[in-house]
Write a structure and sequence with these properties.
Elements (H helix, E strand, L loop, with lengths): L11 H24 L7 H4 L1 E8 L5 H9 L8 E4 L5 E6 L10 H8 L6 E9 L1 H29 L2 H24 L6 H31 L5 H11 L1 H21 L5 H20 L1 H7 L4 H26 L4
Antiparallel strand pairs: 1-3, 1-4, 2-3
Helix pairs in contact: 1-6, 1-10, 5-6, 5-7, 6-7, 6-10, 6-11, 7-8, 7-10, 9-10
Length: about 325
């Protein structure tokens, strides 16, 4: 399917000047959110106990908090609505010390006078395990970015690699900022979403970079800005189709997947928009800002072809016994 049949070349480079400004604003705002209020660590990383309860009627939150405060081991518990007035989430700062202790049943017993309820979920993570998961999650994000930079450096030129990785950092930071803004706990689902976003975004960027490299070979006498505009215009239909497919899939998951999956669906929803936007307006613009030189690139390609031709001739002469 092609949305743009007349092969019109749009001036994306000019529009990307405004895009870079918008990206800087969103990036700085996200960094500010990192510092204050910062991430709310979920049970996966902070450790503790999480209990999800479902009532037959709207849950009396004030009464539930009062009941829990009467028990010393449950003081300081966070009680919040979870998706609907009938469902609540109870977060306890400490994990149960005994594997034989059924903390879900104990809490249900404490709250039996607050209404008819049933236990939907109980998650328990010790503080040591939570700290290890936090370190490994951060390490996974860093290794993913470093691996992608090495791969793109091998496939392209180092300026393309640096532009691609900076665009990925831009996508991850803004998506993570949305997690803080919408008050979603930082847990393994969020880390999984950010890693998935890295793969989605770099795929979009690589396709555009491939078309730029192909166009560079066909337009030897054109300037870099014209080459980028032509490459972006040629891939625009594909980018829109991919972005819309991704957006509506994740949007459906966000609307109907429930609260339990919002840690994954929200970052992906924001990332599907930001990732496509950065591939068009950020990554390509950064290549220009990094002073990529078309003349030097063509000279480098010509030298590589010349060396390959010389090696081929020497090999043919050797095979014919002339050396």
């Amino acid at each position: 399917m092609d949305f743009f049949k007349h092969k019109k070349i749009y001036d994306f480079v000019k529009m990307s000047s405004y895009g870079i400004v918008l990206s800087l604003i969103l990036f700085v705002v996200s960094l500010v959110l990192f510092m204050k209020p910062g991430f709310t660590l979920g049970v996966d990383f902070a450790g503790g106990t999480l209990i999800q309860l479902q009532y037959e009627s709207p849950a009396p939150l004030a009464e539930i908090r009062a009941k829990l405060d009467l028990v010393d081991s449950y003081k300081g518990a966070q009680v919040s609505e979870f998706g609907s007035p009938e469902e609540i989430l109870i977060k306890l700062p400490t994990a149960t010390s005994s594997v034989n202790q059924n903390i879900g049943e104990e809490v249900a017993e404490v709250l039996k006078d607050t209404g008819t309820l049933n236990i939907r979920r109980v998650d328990i993570v010790g503080p040591k395990v939570g700290s290890e998961l936090q370190e490994k999650g951060t390490l996974a994000l860093v290794l993913a970015l470093v691996s992608i930079m090495l791969y793109v450096s091998y496939r392209y030129e180092w300026r393309f690699a640096l532009a691609a990785v900076l665009a990925l950092v831009h996508d991850v930071v803004i998506s993570a900022g949305a997690v803080i803004l919408f008050d979603i706990d930082l847990n393994l689902e969020v880390i999984a979403a950010l890693l998935t976003l890295i793969g989605y975004s770099i795929n979009d960027t690589i396709i555009i970079f491939d078309r730029i490299r192909e166009t560079i070979g066909l337009r030897v006498n054109d300037g870099l800005e014209k080459v980028i505009n032509e490459a972006l215009s040629a891939t625009l239909s594909r980018t829109i189709l991919t972005s819309l497919t991704m957006f509506f899939s994740v949007f459906t998951l966000y609307l109907f997947g429930g609260e339990i999956i919002k840690g994954f669906s929200l970052p992906m929803l924001v990332g599907s928009i930001v990732g496509s936007y950065s591939s068009i307006f950020v990554a390509s613009k950064l290549v220009i800002l990094f002073k990529f030189d078309l003349k030097k690139y063509h000279q480098k390609v010509a030298d590589a072809e010349r060396r390959a031709l010389e090696k081929k001739k020497l090999r043919e002469m050797y095979e014919k016994g002339r050396i």
